[in-house]
Write a structure and sequence with these properties.
The chain folds into three domains: 181 residues, Rossmann fold (3-Layer(aba) Sandwich); 143 residues, Nitrogenase molybdenum iron protein domain (Rossmann fold); 37 residues, no CATH class. Helices cover 46% and strands 17% of the residues. The chain is built from 17 helices and 14 strands. The longest helix has 19 residues. Keywords: Amino-acid biosynthesis, Histidine biosynthesis, Metal-binding, NAD, Oxidoreductase, Zinc. It catalyses: L-histidinol + 2 NAD(+) + H2O = L-histidine + 2 NADH + 3 H(+). It holds the Pfam family Histidinol_dh. Its cofactor is Zn(2+).
């Protein structure tokens, strides 16, 4: 893992892209076209091609849910229950209510909050399993009042869904689970097939093909975000234990080779200690090959002149996860403008947020934290403006409306008001 200056970091170019977006888009657009044309047949063909599995029924049965419940450990079930409680409590506070403002003179204005009817949740799968992502995506949708929540997740080599994922789906309140992965799952949720119901919005993480598929169906359905590789940025001073910093950087690097792990410090001795700890800890980790490649491509320890310079780098990066492992982290939040989630102190590591604390782990990446927010209950509702004027109230406002409409050359708009004054020129 390289130790560089802030100036060197600013000059570095991103050379980590393994496959151009153009190549991915070509494949994704073909998949979307085929799914729209051939429905379930296309889904089965793509599942065999990409997952190596022949699927007859695309929908998980009640028998499969029951079998999954018998396969998971009691320790997992207990941890799942605790995580569910924490996530539910946090997201409960995000719920919004419709509101109305009664003004004088017969005017009532307001905003009506309505839950989306159908939502699709994509959960990565196949070789890995992410029950935590099930909780993070389904629970806020459920709290928002979504009528039907569908999960799409790739099958394992045996044609079944990972039992931990199924138990999490049942516990969180999902209504249906499809054995579908990749861009074909996104296409099916967006447009519907014989077995898959069309949804209003698609949320959840995925690989580059899933992300690009979400981009291409956006407009026909809503999406949460176009997520990129996972990121962590740690700002550390001399009070932070090097072993903790190294462990947290490695926790992100193990996601995949494109993951980004960055530490910013003002202390060069600390930087050297962190680098030594990374080498030491990596040797004992299962995914060390992925970690080494990730750190080689996107791992950096940056030496900043001072903390304010470090915060400036953070705000330019707008990282997905930010850890402030410094003295008085709470007092320094004011200097952070852009970050998906902020973890304070030496005992608030990023995995705490991934699994247990409560705030959502579906976060903006690739610098989009500069204008985007974590997934929340607010992502599963839409809002309608309410306007009610009495006859007298409209008469009082009519001259202004007519003047503004005529100024814009929209005389039919003006006429709509004039008709109600008995002055129509139409």
């Amino acid at each position: 893992m390289k130790i560089i200056t802030a100036e060197q970091f600013a000059l570095e170019k991103d050379n980590t892209r393994q496959q151009s977006e153009h190549d991915i888009d070509q494949a994704v657009l073909e998949i979307i076209k085929e799914v729209r044309k051939n429905g379930d047949d296309a889904l089965r063909r793509y599942t065999e091609k990409f997952d190596g599995v022949n699927i007859d029924k695309l929908i998980v049965t009640e028998e499969e849910f029951s079998e999954a419940g018998e396969l998971v450990t009691s320790e997992f079930s207990s941890a799942l229950q605790q995580a569910k409680q924490n996530i539910s409590e946090f997201h409960q506070a995000q719920k919004e209510q419709s509101w109305f403002l009664n003004k004088s003179g017969g005017i009532m204005l307001g905003q009506k909050v309505t839950a989306l009817e159908k939502v699709g949740v994509y959960i990565p799968g196949g070789k890995a399993a992410y029950p935590s992502s099930v909780l993070m995506n389904v629970i806020p949708a459920k709290l928002a009042g979504v009528e039907k929540i569908a999960i799409a997740t790739p099958p394992q080599s045996n044609g079944k869904i990972n039992p931990n994922v199924l138990v999490a789906a049942k516990e969180a309140g999902a209504d249906i689970v499809y054995k579908l992965g990749g861009a074909q799952a996104i296409a099916a949720l967006a447009y519907g097939t014989e077995s898959v119901g069309k949804v209003a919005k698609i949320v959840g993480p995925g690989n580059a093909f899933v992300a690009r598929a979400k981009k291409w169906v956006f407009g026909d359905v809503a999406i949460d975000m176009i997520a990129g590789p996972s990121e962590i940025c740690i700002v550390a001073d001399e009070t932070a234990p090097p072993a903790y910093i190294a462990a947290d950087l490695l926790s992100q690097a193990e996601h995949d080779e494109s993951a980004s792990s960055i530490c910013i410090t003002t202390n060069r001795d600390l930087a050297e200690d962190i680098k030594a700890e990374i080498d030491k800890q990596t040797a004992g980790l299962e995914r060390k090959d992925i970690i080494k490649k990730s750190l080689e491509l996107n791992g950096r320890i940056i030496i900043a002149k001072n903390l304010m310079a470090a915060f400036d780098i953070v705000n330019k990066l707008a990282p997905e996860h930010l850890q402030l492992m410094i003295q008085s982290p709470t007092e320094n939040i004011q200097f952070i403008k852009h970050a998906g989630a902020i973890f304070l102190g030496n005992y608030s590591p990023e995995p705490l947020g991934d699994y247990f604390a409560g705030p959502n782990h579906t976060l903006p990446t690739n610098g989009t934290a500069a204008f985007s927010s974590p997934l929340g209950v607010y992502d599963f509702v839409k809002k309608s403006s309410i306007i009610s004027y009495s006859e007298a109230a409209l008469q009082n406002a009519s001259e202004s409306i007519i003047n503004l409409a005529n100024t814009e050359g929209l005389t039919a708009h003006a006429n709509s008001i004039q008709v109600r004054r008995g002055e129509s020129n139409a």
